[in-house]
Amino acid sequence: xxxxxxxxxxxxxxxxxxxxxxxxxxxxxxxxxxxxxxxxxxxxxxxxxxxxxxxxxxxxxxxxxxxxxxxxxxxxxxxxxxxxxxxxxxxxxxxxxxxxxxxxxx
Length: 106
Prior knowledge:
One of its GO terms (biological process) is bacterial-type flagellum-dependent cell motility. 78% of the residues lie in helices and 0% in strands. By secondary structure, it is an all-alpha fold. The relative contact order is 0.07.
């Protein structure tokens, strides 16, 4: 049986703390920049456009007679429709907020 003295115990403890610090620095994500509203909106509109494009492509493939499942076509059309409706709702809310701000007394 070995005995552990206070010096070796403190040395082990300091090594563990150093390793934890290194691991924390390695796994910490880089400081994220705050999201720009314009860039976020542009990204969202790009995603909606992508959904619409996929829907059009699948519909055209089905109309040509390509081997496309009708369920996949309908699912993609619904996804595109829902994303477009959500975009319209965001636009309506933004316009409403703008009108409210403009009607505020100074």
